[in-house]
Amino acid sequence: MTNTLPSRKLKAGLGAKTHLGNLCFLLPTILLFSIVVLIPVIQGIPYSFTSWKSIVSTNHPYNGLANYKYLLGNKYFRMSLKVTFSFTLQYMFLSMLFGFGLALLIHKASSFNNVCRTIFFLPFTTSVTAGAIIWSYVYTDIYGTLTGLVSPLGLPNQIVPAMALMASWRDMGYAMLIFIAALQTVPKDYYEAATVEGANVWQQFIYITIPNIVPAFTTNVTLLLAWGLRTFDLPSVVAQNMQEGQTTAMYIYQSIFANNKASLGQAAAIILTIILIVLTQIVTRALRRLEVEA
Amino acid sequence: MEEKLHVYNPNTKTHRRKVRNERIRKLFVCLCVVVVLAPFYVAILYAFKPATEITSNRLAFTKNPTLENFRRVIFENPLFGIGLRNSLINTIPCVLILMACTSMAAWVLARFDHLRAYKILYAVLTLGLLVPFQCFVLPLYLNWYNAGLVSTNIGFIIARAGLQISISLTAITGFVKTVPRELEQAASIDGCNRFQLFWKIVFPLMTPINTTQLVLNTLFIWNDYSTAIILLREKESKTLTLAQIQYFNGKTTELNEAFAFFILAMIPILALYLSCQRYIISGITAGAVKG
Amino acid sequence: MKKLLSLVLALALVLSFTAFAAADEPAKITVFHYMVEGNKQAGLEAVEEAFKAANPDLNVEFENIAYSQGTDYWPQLETAIAAGDNPEIIMGNPGLYSSLIEEGFIKDLSDNEVIKALGLTSGDMGDVSYQGKWYAYPVDFKSWGVFYNTKIFAEQGIELPKTHTELLAVCQKLQDAGIAPWAQWYADGASVDIEMRPIVWTKALQNGDNDMFEKLMSGEKKVTDYPYFEEGLRVWGERMTGWARSDATSNKQTDANEVFISGQAAMLYQGTWDIGSIENAIAGSDFEYGFFLCPTDDSGSNPVLNVQVDQAFMVNQKAEQAELASKFMEFWLTDCMGLWSDKTNQPCITGATTENTPALLLSLLETKASGNTACYGDFTAPFSSAFTSAYRKALTAWAVYCCTGTEASGVSSVETCLSYMQELFDEEIAQAAL
Q1: Residue A58 is assigned to a structural domain of this protein
Q2: Number of folded domains in chain B?
Q3: B60 to each of A244, B20, B56, C257, how far by Cα in Å?
Q4: Which of A52, A171, C141, C152 allows an S-S link to A263, with CB 3.0 to 4.6 Å?
Q5: Residue A148: its chain C contacts at CB < 8 A?
Q6: Angle, helices B78-111/B116-125, rounded to nearest 10 degrees
Q7: What CATH code is carried by the domain that includes residue A174?
Q8: Which domain holds residue A258?
Q9: Which secondary structure element, helix H or strand E, spans residue C182, and what is its range?
């Protein structure tokens, strides 16, 4: 006991100096993040407990939890959540499917494959808004001309899948690169050994490929989940007047800025943030457990 | 011997099947390429069409392709020059600041990730990935206005760098964890202080991920719309992405010019992407997977 | 690497600071507006140049800030003002910007001699009033009706329809000849709204329901209390069902113009605000179009012209150059109306014309002067932006049902559309009470 005490003190002393040095490394990032994200987020919380209407108004009386109670019981807010979830699921599914499929096709190094990778990542270099506008013409000019059918953006029961397809066209390249990266880390001798033992291609895929690239799934799921649940630019370009395409992020924006319900929108934003954090935590933890098992 | 001959004989069944499979794969990949590029075809179609030519077949390429739309964008739309200048002035410092800040922070956060305080700090800093922008845009704007930062390049640079931290930090921290500590330990025994250690030893080791992040961050910032439309109000401060949206605001008929603008705005970013694309893959390999 | 990095960084920072550099400070008038059309922006700049030329002693500069009305205009304006960034001139009809008026930003123009001297009607001034006071300078007005392809009409031997039944017969005839009757653009909220107005506005004002919108917003009355909505939906439904093109519900304004101009459809239900854009698009081609007001019943009487002030500008009295801004607006209204009309193809509220004014505008001005009009300004209050967007959502669902047969939000008949509309209104009322 007497022996360990001084050494502990010593450690603590060294530690303090180290931590101070660390702080110097961290400070620019912390400062930047605080003034741009953290402080404004905290500043925004009190607004959600008031009945602030137009943001030009200086009058915002406290109204307790009224906004939250209203939102949780409200049909249209819940509908916007439903749209958001259904969009996110379809968008994640399509992006991962396309991304993984393409990665399997072109993950080996060759000049042909390299050119293809460049091309498949190309949509990611466009802005979401410009991409959305181009796609509205793809749906009328290409899809419409070839099939003679109504553009899915004009149909309430098809608008969400249509948006998911547009979004995954843009983001599948990103998912693909992450999958390619993971596929390249799978040791080649695993496959050789399996071939010797007589495993067919399908068995190799299930028992070697998949378990070795679970981390790539985690990365993709986390990223796409966050992007999907926050989606705003896309529906605000193509689904302005269609209830069936209104995401929660749009509901928030409309409430705060367009419809003079600033505090209600702020409360909706906080609810969405909480849902996002909880959901991402659950999903990531579940996937991490899979990683360990694999 | 017999066995080996069997494998390498180009006339065997297995070999022919392999060749055939390879052909099918390439054909299929080419098909995918066509599908992925189809939307760009629409943009090119409109951009090269004379403004007065409106045909009933919307898919056919124009018989009189013209560069007039491009000429008009470059020489007659003052927003193009302004936008290009601002996009460059905003994007370049922003990605450099991000690289300097996040690589320093990521190193510390990765090396001390066994300590609780650092874990919490990391969780907070990556929270930005999860908070919807609408949640804090109003206070952000008010603060920026009071600081005189609205419609300035410096204001946009700071805001955009701050918003980008979370996603960038995740990737770089993941990468640093894969870099062995031995080199650092050797250097610190040699009497390097921590700043020297970082800039001389660690930072160069981070080149692959930093290049990747440089390109990806450039994409995000160059294409940014939601932040720009809030923070950049005056004409002189608009970026290319903002300027191009003006064309699409429903009430305009200059669709051909709009797509010409879209293509022009993509060129710088495309050039950067094409020249750096091999680093992107290697960077993602190292960073994202272990994240 | 480090040196290079810091060098580039320093260079970029220096470059970005040049944005601050300013020479001798002129008086700056900031105009916040939603005229995204090229010819209107050019028109505004022309008026500004004329103002500078007429006042060489003033050192004045203009900053025009444009946003799309549907999505970004009000959000941008609102954040600017909330932060204390006060533009001098704000485009908009005051009824939609009541919070700005209530917070004391907008200058009261009730005693303005220049506006009084214009001799405008109550319907005109109603659009720029809020609770009986004038708050904006009206510049021009808009209406809506049917643009038709004269060549197709002549080839098919079609007379201009005088009644609703005749209009349906025209649609059928065109359809039978393999020509799509309508270029529609129901992805745009404005489109569904203007299809309803000839009935809703006209009938409500004829029956003295001037406070209709006010009562709907307060919840005192329901949409079913006013038969005009039901009639409007039914008549518009008959007009669009049966011959909708497959792009009807995904087209926006520009797309429909293109369909119409390329001869793929014979008629286009459109606002007069787009005459300028259509003229630009057909410049140099042999395309010809005509315009008629949409008949909505079988009486055969002359259809009533809907009138709504289009470009209107408020002066922000909390802005630095508010006085100068008023002076500019008054100069515009008195000396530049012809210039504005020629640049934009817009009919001026004062009826001003030049030798260049096209026949279509002359006939609109003539109809307006005849008094056979239904003016939005004669309603006691307009729909707020929240109610407008709710209203348009319900109408869009109706358009989608009629054009594609797809049921959205339970809308599959006039009755279900009205109940969906009321549901959305109730939602707004409940939120306002929070």
Answers
A1: no
A2: 2
A3: 33, 34, 9, 19
A4: A52
A5: 246
A6: 160
A7: 1.10.3720.10
A8: 66-293
A9: strand C180-183
